[in-house]
Design a protein that fits this description.
Shape: globular
Structural class: alpha+beta
Strand content: 35-45%
Mean pLDDT: 82
Length: 274
Amino acid sequence: MINERFNLKKRIGSDQEMFPLHKSVTLIALLLMNLLAGCQHQADPAPLQSANDYHTSRPRPTDTAANLIKLEWKLVDTIPVVSQLSAPPTGATLITEKKLDDFGGVKVSVYTMASDEDYVYARVSSSQGQYSLGAIGTYNYRQPENIKVEVVRIFSEKVLKITGGLGANNSLTNYYLIDESGNPSGLLQIDTGHSKELDVDGDGSIEGVAAHGNPMSAYIYRWNVDHAEVTFVNDALKADSVVLTDEGIYEALNIGDKQSKRFRLTLEGLIQEQ
């Protein structure tokens, strides 16, 4: 900086000899402006990112607070009851049986009882003994095609899922944990419609989702520390009918409306799709 000022003084002296006074004054003013601009450039810190630069270097912030619809979660206080049997139940009529290779070859038997025309039951047989899994559906839906026994993942766990019928458009689903020794324990019971397992909020843990009725009612089941919770999506969206699409989007519709609204579930709640 000091050298620049010295060189400028020398240049001004020589220019005064070559140019008339008014031209020299103009030249001096221009040189001073350039010098000050150069000093300002060296003294100023690096410029801050502009708003446009910010948005191109990281995701644009979303205004979720204004658009977020929070869900009311309630404790699931009904879980399947498991009890050990000293012997196979007397008066039982076998409906279907399945061996579970995923759980060391334990066997699940579904049956009715001669003295009970209300429910269908299930039991597990393992090297540790026999266990009653309780009622898994109603008696009117006691055919093999009415009952489904499978192994699925829910709440980050591999579990036994048994689905039986409750009505024409409703079912009862029971989920059971089975430990390495073949001992079962109840995990979750869903009686709010046909259920499936889906990571609907994208957090990496699989939730249970259920729906039934016409108009449709939708429910979500999640795990919270040491218990299961459920929320009724229709209440949160104040909608007569809520349907979960194959893309994991909830479509809400009120009676009389011509077009549905679409919502995506996040960890914080539901956000409407634009």
